[in-house]
Design brief:
The complex is a heterodimer of chains A (74) and B (193). With 74 residues, chain A is mainly α. Chain A has one domain. Chain A contains four helices and no strands. Chain A is elongated. Chain B is mainly alpha-helical and 193 residues long. Chain B is built from eight helices and two strands; from the N terminus they run βααααααααβ. Classes of the chains: A mainly alpha (74), B mainly alpha (193). At the A-B interface, helix 3 and helix 4 of A face helix 3 and helix 7 of B.
Chain lengths: 74, 193
């Protein structure tokens, strides 16, 4: 059976159970990482937000690259 | 224009070695010992929350100590980073592997107990856990490992204070000037015993 790109994307997103499990890890890691670099809570939160955005962006980039590669070569 | 002040905060680390031991035994306890209550609570909630959530995902089976020839549970070395919450696995391992006794029923049967070796009569226990819990066994393992590794960062923070920002980041911060609100930029910490 041949799936088009939209179907594959919807299938990937309709199994959110595993993807959602990354969110608590990202939050926990970002906060702990921020806390190991700063002492004041406001600075910790700022650092945590930056780290969280960076990690999320990195993951989405990897997802996009793998998605494109899978569509082109698989 | 105000010149940014040196990013130094005086942190009383008390006895850093003692704080580090406390931080390992119970995430956040080292910071509470140092009276850094906000950070202590933050570490405690984040690390223990991650750890116990992962433990719950795997129904208490994902943290176990086994270093036999057929099952080298190297993940436990990471999980041990959370200290006391991972220690029951050592007791269970001692009973099951060394003494060949039944595991203690701490929070349910086989809680933190290593799976028995593959046996023609009893089958492969570890494989049956994987079949039963599917991806949650790996997810639980991952969560508990990450929690242990995060606590290593917390232990270092309790021992030596927060890491200084990277030089480029500090330069940008100095170029931007002090953050809104008038507070002095803070990042590096000084140790004052």
């Amino acid at each position: 059976m041949d799936f088009d790109a939209a179907t594959v994307l919807i299938a990937a997103l309709s199994r959110p159970m595993l993807a959602w499990y990354s969110i608590p890890l990202i939050v926990a890691f970002s906060l702990v990482y921020g806390a190991t670099r700063h002492e004041l809570m406001s600075e910790i939160l700022q650092q945590a937000i930056r780290a969280g955005v960076w990690i999320t962006g990195f993951m989405f980039t990897i997802f996009a690259v793998l998605f494109v590669v899978s569509r082109l070569f698989l | 224009m105000n010149e940014p002040q040196d990013a130094i905060i005086e942190v009383d680390l008390r006895r850093p070695e003692v704080a580090a031991v406390w931080a390992w035994l119970w995430p956040g306890a080292g910071h509470l010992y140092q009276r850094r209550f906000a950070k202590g609570l933050l570490f405690m909630v984040c690390i223990l929350g991650t750890y116990f959530y992962g433990l719950a995902l795997g129904s208490g089976r994902v943290v176990y100590a086994s270093f036999t020839e057929t099952d080298r549970r190297w993940q436990y070395l990471c999980q041990l980073g959370v200290g006391l919450p991972a220690m029951p696995a050592l007791v269970q391992s001692y009973r099951v592997i060394r003494k060949n006794q039944r595991p203690l029923e701490l929070l349910g049967p086989e809680f933190m107990a290593p799976p028995h070796p593959v046996d023609p009569e009893r089958g492969d226990k570890l494989a049956s856990w994987h079949r039963k819990y599917h991806q949650y066994f790996e997810l639980g393992t991952l969560y508990t490992m990450v929690a242990g590794l995060l606590n290593v960062l917390a232990i270092y923070d309790a021992y030596a204070g927060p890491l200084a920002p990277a030089p480029e980041e500090e330069k940008k911060r100095r170029r931007r000037g002090p953050p809104d609100g008038g507070g002095a930029p803070v990042g590096a910490a000084d140790t004052a015993s």
